[in-house]
Amino acid sequence: MDDKSFSSPVRISLGAMGLRLVATAWEALECLRNQWPQQDGLEYKRAVRINRDALEGWMTPAKARQAFVQAAQRAGVFIDDRTNK
User: Fold this and answer.
1) pTM here?
2) Contacts of 49 (CB under 8 A, 6+ apart)
3) Cα four-point dihedral sign 70, 75, 76, 78
């Protein structure tokens, strides 16, 4: 199983744990499983599945990143870098 890099890192804020840049499907999966504020809901479950599938080669890194961003938006932890430019 090879890690899959995202086209650009995803910035999230995990409260007391601070800011985090997530740049690969492995990092996304680790973050979702170990640091996520709410481990339920459709977006969360979808992000876990798609990032795991990306690691197995069944899904593209772009789809994995998109699913992670959607889960982060739903959980209220996503930081949109475009608003800072």
Assistant:
1) 0.92
2) none
3) negative
